Amino acid sequence: MNQATDKRPLVVFTPSGKRGNFEVGTPVLEAARALGVDIDSVCGGRAICGRCQITLSEGDFAKHGIRSTGQSLSAFSKVEERYDQKRGMKQGRRLSCQSKILADVVIDVPASSQVHKQVVRKRAEARDIDLNPVTRLYYIEVEEPDMHKASSDLERVMLALKEQWDVHDVALDFSLLANLQIVLRKGGWKITVAVHDRSLRSIIAMWPGFHDQVFGLAVDVGSTTIAAHLCNLSTGEVIASAGLMNPQIRFGEDLMSRVSYVMMNPGGEKEMTAVVREALNELGQTAAREADVAVDDILEIVLVGNPVMHHLFLGLDPVELGGAPFALSTGLPVSCPARELGLEFNAGSRAYVLPCIAGHVGADCAAVVLSEEPYLSDDIMLVVDVGTNAEIVLGNKDKLVACSSPTGPAFEGAQISSGQRAAPGAIERIRINKDTLEPRFKVIGSDLWSDEDGFAQEIEQSGITGICGSGIIEVVAEMYLAGIIDADGLVVGAMTEKSSRIRQDGRTFSYLVHDGEPQVMVTQNDIRAIQLAKAALYAGIQLLMDQLQITSVDRIRLAGAFGSHIDVKYAMILGLIPDCDLANVHSAGNAAGTGARIALLNGDAREKIESVVRKIIKIETAVEPKFQDHFVDAMAIPHKQHLFPLLSQIVDFPKVVPGKSVDPDTVSDGRPRRRRRKR
To answer: For residues 451 and 461, is the Cβ–Cβ distance under 8 A?
Structure first.
C-alpha cells in the first residue's frame, strides 16, 4: 500500500470525501474545520457536549492509497473515558476534539455528528397501487378446550380460520408456539392472527383480542443513501418515510471500492453487513417512531439494492462481483424470516428481496422496471437509474435489454473539488450570463436565486458550502453554452480577457462560481470527471440501442435520487442522455423505492417481476468491444457524432467543428500524453 507523498499524515473524511495532510498531533476536529468538514461542536473542544463524535475506519483503502489502523489516532484518553462513563458512547466512537492524528487515517463522521444533515432525496412517490398484500389479518373466535373433544389449541385455531375465513392448510411459525396458549387465554379465546400467504401459508404473528394495525417496510438500499417507507398493509398508505446515508461509505464511496476493501481486508464483508443491518433497524425504528406505531407491528420487509448492496445485506461475499464474469451468489428472489437477516421487528416478520437481473444490474433495477413498466409499453422506453453505478433498461413490450455502466460518484459531488452531497448550503441550480459570464445560483434550503433580495439573509445559517450533483451538471452545461469550455470540455484560456472569473490554475484554467468561504471553483479536473461519468452512461445506452438496432428512443425516465433532481434539459445538453422530445423526458422519482412498495403491497406483483426479469437480455459493457468507441465519442459535449436535432430546436448550441471530440489520451490541459514505446 502506497503511503502519502507528503510526510505529514493524510486524513480522509467520509462521507464528504474531503482530504488533506496534517502535522502529527493535530486534533481531528481541527483538521475537519480546516477542510470544511461538517462536525458539530458547541463546547469549544472541551469534551463536554459530545457532539463531535467520529469513528476510525480500519483497513487498507486502495482508493485513497493508505492503510488506516487503530494506531492512526492517539489512544482513548482519560477525558474520553470520563465522558463515556457519564454520558455513554457507541462502541468504536471517539471524540474528535480529543483524538489526535498520528498516521494516515480514514475518519467517518456519522450523521448524528453533522450540523447540516445530509438530505436523503428519496421520498415516497404518489402512486396508485392495487392492494393485495401477502400478509393479512384475521380475527377469530376459537372454541374453548373440552375434555370430551380430543383437540389441541393449535388445531382449534386452524379450524376457526377454516370455518370463519375459509383459510385452509395453515402452519404456525414455530417461534410462536410457546406463546400460543398465553395469547388465547389472555384474549378470552378471541384472537387476531397474521397469516403470511406465500409458498407455505403460515401464521407469523398473533394478538389477544381484536387487532387491526399491521405494517410493512419498503427499503431501497442504495450505495450512498438508504430510504425506507412504512406502509399500512391494510390501506396501502405510506404513513412514514425515513432515510440516512449508507454507513458503508466509510469503506469506499463507490461499489468497486467496497469490493476492493473486502479483497484487501479479510472479513471486511462481515463489517459492511453488520453496519448496513444496523442502519436498516435504525430506519425501521425511526419510521415507526415518526408514525407512532409499534415496531412489533411491522410484519413485512421488502428490500431492493444493486448487486453489491444485495449481497452485503444478505450476508454474502461480493468479491466475485469485482471481476469478470461478475457471478452472483444468487439472483433469485429471496424470501425468509426477517430475523435471519438480523432485522429486529416482529419476531415472525418476513423479508422479501426482489430478484437481480444480472451481475451488475440488481434488485433495485428490477424494482424500477416494476414501477415504470416498460414491459407494457408500445413505445421504446429508456429507463436510467442514475447512481454511482448507473443501471439502464431499454425496450418495450416486445423486448427488453439492460446493462450497467460505471459512472462513479462524481454525479453525487465526490471527486469534485468543491463537490458535496445534497445538504443545506449546497449549490443545486446555476445560470451563467453569456455576455458577462456572471453566475446566479440557488442553494438547498432556499427558494431564492443568489441575485434576489433576501438571499443572504435566508442562507445565513447554512451559508454556501459547495456544489452538489445537480449543480455540477448545470454548471458544466452552462459553461459550455456560455463558451467558457469547448466541445472537448477544455476551459478556454482566452476567456480570462472577458471575465476575472476565469482564472489560471496551474497549466489549466478554472471558473469561479462563488468567491467566499469556502471558495467554490469548477476546475478542469472537475469537468473531466463529469465527462468521464457521462460518457460511461451514454456509452452504455448506445450499446443497448445497438442491440435493438435503433437510432432513437421515444420516452426517457430518469430514476434515483440524483435523476430526480437534475434538470432533464441540462442532462441532455451535457450529453448524459440521447436526444429526445423533452416533453417525453421525465423524472421517475425514487422508482426503486416505488417498485419495492408495489412488491410490498401486492403479492401478484412479486410473481410478475420474477417472470419479467427472466426475459430481460443482459449486455455486459465490460466485454463489449464497441463500448470504448462509444465512450470516446461520448466524451465530447454533448457528443462527437450525434447532433441532437430535437434539443437544438430549443437550445442555442455554440458553433463547433463537426466531428471534433475529446482524445482519451490527453491530460487535463488537453496536451497529449507521452506514450511508452512498446519493446
So the answer is: no
Residues 6 or more apart from 431 whose CB is under 8 A from it? 439, 440, 441, 474, 478
197: cell is: 400467504
197 Ramachandran zone, left/alpha/beta (phi>0; psi -120 to 50): beta
Distance CA 83, CA 85 (A): 5
Cα dihedral sign for 126, 128, 134, 140? positive
Measure the CA–CA gap between 96 and 200, rounded to whole angstroms.
Answer: 51
3-state secondary structure 514-564: ECCCCCEEECHHHHHHHHHHHHHHHHHHHHHHHHHCCCCCCEEEEEHHHHH
Range in 110-114, 185-189, 366-370 with the lowest mean pLDDT: 110-114
Name the grid cell of 655: 458553433
Q: How many residues does the chain have?
A: 679
How confident is the model over 260-291, as pLDDT tens digits? 889 988 899 999 999 999 999 999 999 999 99
Residue-range domains of the chain with CATH: 10-113 (3.10.20.30), 116-353 (3.30.420.480), 366-409+529-648 (3.30.420), 419-523 (no CATH)
Whole-angstrom Cα distance, residue 578 to residue 568? 11
CA–CA distance, 357 with 383 (Å, rounded to integer) = 14
CA–centroid distance for 345 within its chain: 23
C-alpha–C-alpha distance, residues 311 and 221, integer Å: 11
Whether this model's pTM surpasses 0.85: no
- Map residue 51 onto helix, strand or coil: coil
Which stretches does DSSP call E strand in 101-146? 105-108, 135-141
- pLDDT tens, 89-137? 888 899 999 999 999 999 988 877 776 555 554 555 566 788 899 999 9
